[in-house]
Design brief:
mainly alpha, 65 residues, single chain
Length: 65
């Protein structure tokens, strides 16, 4: 089995269209563009916890599929 990041990227490639636009954007920035939670939060003017919550929900959707 591939490592966790590769696995999550593959899930995103296959099922990314099932996510909301915000989930897709944050997930892509975090896993594919390698931005930190803080960097994403700063760019979108929200908290790090807010970014983390969106990514965790996106991961749950992708894993469930």
């Amino acid at each position: 089995m591939p490592d966790e990041t590769v696995w999550r990227t593959m899930l995103f490639d296959f099922y990314g269209d099932m996510l909301t636009d915000r989930q897709k954007e944050f997930y892509d920035l975090y896993y594919n563009e390698d931005l930190s939670l803080g960097e994403i939060a700063e760019n979108y003017n929200i908290t790090r916890q807010g970014v983390r919550d969106v990514i965790v929900r996106a991961e749950a959707v992708l894993t469930e599929l």
